Amino acid sequence: MTNDAGLEATFWGVRGSTPCCGPHVERFGGNTPCLEVRCGTERLIFDAGSGLRNLGHAWSDQGVGRAHMFLTHFHLDHVMGLPFFKPFFEEGNALTVMAGRHDSQCCLRNAIKRLFSPPLLPVCVDMFKAKVEFGDLSAGDTHTIGDGIKVRTAPLNHPDGATAYRVDYRDKSVSYVTDTEHKDKTLDENILKLIDGTDLFIYDAMFTDEEYEAHRGFGHSTFTQGLRLAEEAKVKKYIPFHHHPSHDDHFLERIEGGLRERFPGTVMAAEGLKLAA
After folding, report:
1. Measured between alpha carbons, how far apart are the two ends of the chain, in Å?
2. Average pLDDT of the chain?
3. Which of 77, 139, 202, 262 could be joined to 32 by an S-S link, Cβ 3.0–4.6 Å?
4. Cα separation values, 41 from 11, 90, 102, 151, Å
5. Could you tell me which residues come within 8 angstroms of residue 67 by beta carbon, excluding any fewer than 6 positions away?
6. Would you report the helix, strand and coil content of the chain in percent, each value rounded to 5?
7. Quick one: how far is CA 99 from the chain centroid?
8. pLDDT band of 139, cuts 50, 70, 90
């Protein structure tokens, strides 16, 4: 385990909607959302997109362990890595998996069992060898993990619902706010309250302002709306995330440069990026 004293975030997947590959996305990466947050010796995982597979292999190489996994919602780009997560199938590992319940008919366990079933997959949750526990949460809940790790939640504006998370540990913090659509000329008070003064602010910046006009109702936000939130909430670093599959390395580099002119603490999310709070 690294970073015994502090909080560190590692990005394993940063792309939205669908994985993509090729030389045009080599710098920022093509896997869908997966964030690992280490608080001392505790491992927290946020979302289980295709990037979860690589995280799982890195975990397996280190030996058995435990983790808490939090899902923002059940859309495919955020859960497609679950069947390929090696620690599920290894004895000695222990995981608690939680997600916001936004539909009274669909709890986390039922959603996972639906994914792990024919004709979608030839494996089922009964094949897990690790100790895996499932739990539902309500957006607005606060959870305490281990020695002083606080996980706060907030509801997001997204089709079928989604949950934002904030982790506080030893006066350091990271906020994970992905898959949300902003309202014109206003800032979401739920988000502002959650991210206030946070060290690392990760935000759904899938569209430019021009692209957003053609994608209203899709449940996603923009680079500039994230910037407005970052400025208003006085965060230390703004990390645009959930990159559109068509946004190549050159495009994202150009956007990053423009954002830094206004907010020097901007760092574009990229696979393999590690940030200490």
Report:
1. 17
2. 94
3. 77
4. 18, 20, 31, 16
5. 43, 44, 45, 59, 87, 94, 95, 96
6. 25, 30, 45
7. 12
8. confident
